[in-house]
Every structure is written in C-alpha cells, then in structure tokens.
From TrEMBL:
Pfam families: EF-hand_7 (PF13499). It comes from Pagothenia borchgrevinki. The keyword Ribonucleoprotein does not apply. GO terms for molecular function: calcium ion binding. This is Parvalbumin.
Amino acid sequence: MSLSSILSADAIDSAIKDCQAPDSFCPKKFFTLCGLTKKSPADVKKVFGILDNDGNGFVEEEELKFFLQRFSPGARVLTDKETKGFMSAADDDSDGRIGADEFQAMVLS
C-alpha cells in the first residue's frame, strides 16, 4: 500500500513544499496540509503502518528522520531538531518511540 492510495498526490506535494527549508517542519501543519487530519482513524493507522518501516509496531527516531521521504522519495530528511521535536510531541508515554495510538492521537487531535 502506498500513501497516495490514502492521500491525494497534490495534497502530499503541497505539504512537502511547505517544509522544504531545514527546521521548517511542523507535524500538525503537515498533517493538515496533506489531508491526513480529515481521514478516518482506520486510514490514519494505515498511514502509520507505512511509516513504520521495520514493521515492529512503532516509529523510532531513526525512522522519523526519513518521515518526509515516506511521503515523497525526493524530499529532505528531517533535521535532528525537527526529529526530536516531533518525537517529544507524539511520544506520550516517553518510551522513545511512537506507537500507532500515539500517532493517531497526534494526527486527529
């Protein structure tokens, strides 16, 4: 499954373009621009499954760095500052990784 089967290519492009500059990525804004905030909880979990590159049920910091590239292969990697900010915003139980429920709560809140 690809992200473009859940989100429109135009919306993904718009979201990626909005955060091209280093340290300009804001997860909440990105989720809104790409249309993820308007999707069902089931679709949000499908997106999480795509982002969980190693399939262990969590998105760790190493996977988070390449978050934008999961949406668009030519996109930049997140900076360390952006990665740590994203992790701290989504990791409700402070275990150093984002679970599906934490991701869904962040996207749909």
